[in-house]
Specification:
Blueprint (H helix, E strand, L loop, with lengths): L4 H4 L10 H4 L2 H11 L2 H14 L4 H13 L3 H16 L5 H13 L8 H17 L3 H14 L4 H13 L3 H14 L4 H13 L3 H14 L4 H13 L3 H14 L4 H13 L3 H14 L4 H13 L4 H14 L4 H12 L5 H12 L6 H11 L3 H14 L4 H14 L3
Helix pairs in contact: 3-4, 4-5, 5-6, 5-8, 7-9, 8-9, 9-10, 10-11, 10-12, 11-12, 12-13, 13-14, 14-15, 14-16, 15-16, 16-17, 16-18, 17-18, 18-19, 19-20, 20-21, 21-22, 22-23, 22-24, 23-24
Length: 406
C-alpha cells in the first residue's frame, strides 16, 4: 500500500470480527447506500449503531448520508464524536474506518465493490470541503486513500486538502505518490507546484507549472501562479506573457491584475502598475497586496504622501502579516518623525528579519528619535549582517559617538 502502509496497514485489523460473525447487516446497508437508497440505508446504520456503540462503520456512513440529505450540522457532530470516540483507543478515525472497510470489502462473499464505496467516501469529503470543513474533509480523503492507495485522483484530493491545512510535508508525500501513479495528472501537478511555491522552492515549482500549463493552458490560476513564480525568479518577460494569458482568459481576475501590477513595477512602468492595482481593488477591495502595490506605484510617481500613507495603512489593516507593508509605512512615518514608525519597524522585523536595510533604517530612526540604545542595537546588527554597507557603518559610528561608546 505504498506510503500508506504505516497508516492503514493490516496489523490493526488483526483480531477484527470477520464478516460472518458480524452478519451481513452492514454490507446490506452499504449496498443500499451505494444504490442511492438513502432512507433505508440510514435507518439500518442507525439501528446497528444503537445496538453497538462501537460500530464505527455504521456511525461513519450514517454521518455521510446525513450530510448528503442536508443535515450537515448533525453529520459533522456525528463525525467529530466518532473521531473523539476512536481517539480514546489511541487510534485515528481514518485508520480504523479504512482498515475495517478493507477487511470487509475484500471478503469473497461481499458483492459491494471497493471503487463504489470509495466514491461514497470521496463525495462525503467533497461536500464537507465545499462547506469549508477542511479538516473533516481531510479525514474522508484519508479513508478514501486507504481504500484506493493507487488512485491518483483520490491522492490529489487528499494532497490538495492537506495543502490547505498547511500540513506541507504530508501533502508533499501524498502529491508525489499521486504523480508516481499518474505523472500527467493536472490537478496533482498544479497543486504540487503551488505547494513548492509556498515553501519557497521556486525553481522546483516552475518545473511543475511548466508541465501543468502544457496540459491545461486555459487554466487561469495555473497561468497566473506560473507567472508569479517566474516573477520571483526575475524572469520578467516570461512572467508577463503568462499573466497576460491569464488576463485574456479572465479579464476580471483581481489576482491576475495584482501580478501584472508588480511586473510593471519591476519594469518601471509605474502608470501601468498603478492602473492594474486600481483595477484589482475595484474588483476586490480586501486585497492587501493591491493596496501595497498601489502605494508603491504612487510613491514612484511622486504622488501625495498622505495618500501613500493611507494606502500602506490600508494594506496593514487588511493583512497585518505583510512585513514589507509595515516597513514601507514605518519609513513614511519616520520621515515625519512620528514615533509610530518604531512599532511598524519592530513588527516588520518580527515578520521578516531578512528584509534588506530594515535594521539600518530602524536604527537610523531610533537615532533620530533619541532612542540611542535601541539605535546601537539595530545598527550593530545591520553592520554585522552587511559589513560592506557604508551607510550602516557611518550611522553606527554616529550612534557610538552620541552615546560615548568606544
Amino acid at each position: 500500500m505504498g506510503i500508506f502502509s504505516k497508516v492503514f496497514g493490516r496489523d490493526a485489523a488483526q483480531g477484527k470480527v470477520p464478516v460472518q460473525q458480524k452478519g451481513m447487516n452492514f454490507i446490506t446497508a452499504l449496498s443500499m447506500h451505494v444504490r442511492g437508497e438513502l432512507e433505508p440505508a440510514l435507518s439500518a446504520y442507525t439501528g446497528m449503531a444503537e445496538k453497538d456503540t462501537n460500530d464505527f462503520l455504521a456511525l461513519f456512513f450514517a454521518a455521510a448520508i446525513k450530510a448528503e440529505t442536508g443535515k450537515l450540522e448533525e453529520a459533522v457532530q456525528g463525525l467529530r464524536a466518532l473521531s473523539g470516540q476512536i481517539s480514546e483507543t489511541g487510534e485515528s478515525i481514518s485508520r480504523v474506518v479504512a482498515v475495517e472497510l478493507c477487511d470487509l470489502l475484500r471478503d469473497d462473499s461481499v458483492t459491494v465493490k471497493i471503487p463504489a464505496v470509495t466514491d461514497l467516501v470521496v463525495s462525503f469529503g467533497d461536500l464537507l470541503k465545499k462547506e469549508g470543513l477542511t479538516r473533516e474533509s481531510a479525514v474522508c480523503f484519508e479513508i478514501a486513500t486507504g481504500l484506493a492507495p493507487d488512485n491518483a485522483h483520490v491522492l490529489h484530493k487528499l494532497g490538495d486538502t492537506l495543502h490547505d491545512l498547511r500540513a506541507y510535508d504530508y501533502a508533499e508525500s501524498v502529491l508525489q505518490e499521486a504523480l508516481k501513479h499518474a505523472p500527467y495528472h493536472f490537478g496533482a501537478l498544479y497543486t504540487y507546484a503551488v505547494l513548492l511555491q509556498d515553501l519557497g522552492r521556486n525553481d522546483e515549482a516552475i518545473t511543475y507549472y511548466e508541465k501543468a500549463v502544457k496540459l491545461v493552458p486555459t487554466h487561469v490560476g495555473c497561468q497566473n501562479n506560473f507567472g508569479a513564480a517566474l516573477l520571483r525568479a526575475n524572469r520578467i518577460d516570461e512572467a508577463l506573457e503568462h499573466c497576460n494569458t491569464a488576463l485574456e482568459l479572465d479579464p476580471n481576475a483581481p489576482l491576475v491584475k495584482i501580478n501584472l501590477g508588480y511586473i510593471h513595477l519591476l519594469k518601471q512602468d509605474y502608470t501601468a502598475a498603478r492602473n492594474n492595482f486600481r483595477d484589482a481593488l475595484a474588483l476586490n477591495d480586501k486585497l492587501a497586496p493591491a493596496y501595497y502595490g498601489l502605494a508603491s506605484a504612487e510613491q514612484a510617481l511622486g504622488g501625495d504622501v498622505k495618500r501613500i500613507q493611507e494606502l500602506y495603512e490600508k494594506a496593514v489593516e487588511t493583512n497585518p502579516s505583510i512585513a514589507e507593508a509595515h516597513y514601507a509605512l514605518a519609513n513614511i512615518l519616520a520621515s515625519q518623525n512620528d514615533q509610530q514608525a518604531l512599532s511598524h519597524y519592530a513588527t516588520a522585523l518580527q515578520l521578516n528579519s531578512s528584509l534588506p536595510n530594515l535594521r539600518r533604517d530602524f536604527g537610523y530612526t531610533c537615532l533620530q528619535l533619541g532612542r540611542r540604545e535601541e539605535a546601537l542595537e539595530q545598527l550593530k546588527l545591520a553592520v554585522m549582517l552587511n559589513p560592506d554597507d557604508p551607510v550602516a557603518r557611518d550611522l553606527l559610528a554616529q550612534a557610538q559617538g552620541a552615546s560615548g561608546e568606544a
